[in-house]
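lol forgot to send this yesterday, sorry. struct tokens for the thing we talked abt
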């Protein structure tokens, strides 16, 4: 869970819109 939080923070800080890819990655982890 901590890794996911770190990734989320990194994405927010980067300001990169990768919602579709991020969603696929999240579903892959579930």
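and heres what i got for the seq, position by position
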């Amino acid at each position: 869970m901590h890794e996911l939080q770190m990734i989320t923070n990194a994405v927010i800080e980067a300001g990169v819109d990768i919602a579709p890819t991020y969603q696929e990655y999240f579903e892959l982890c579930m």
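The mean pLDDT is 76. anyway ping me if u want another try
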